[in-house]
Design goal:
2 strands; extended
Length: 99
Amino acid sequence: ADMGEMQMELPANTFPMMTGTGPYGPIEMGGMFSTLKVRKDLAPGDYRDPGWYEPPAGTQAQEVSVPNDAPRAPDARPDPPAAGTPSARKPMGHSHEGH
């Protein structure tokens, strides 16, 4: 079961952290967590629940079905390492000269 779906007995002084539900399913909270509902069109002093935010049309991701034979971009391969000896400089001495 998903953690948000599990119901466990809580101590009397504990706020239930895994029981919130949002527009997309359980809100799984942990630690210090707040869910704010902010709207431009709320009047000052209006404390009624405005409900869940309605995103503007065309701004939500959606699942896309793509046939298995759809063309794909070629797989990216890293460039092969350059031939030759790596360029490295061995530290000289243990003094602090030149700093």
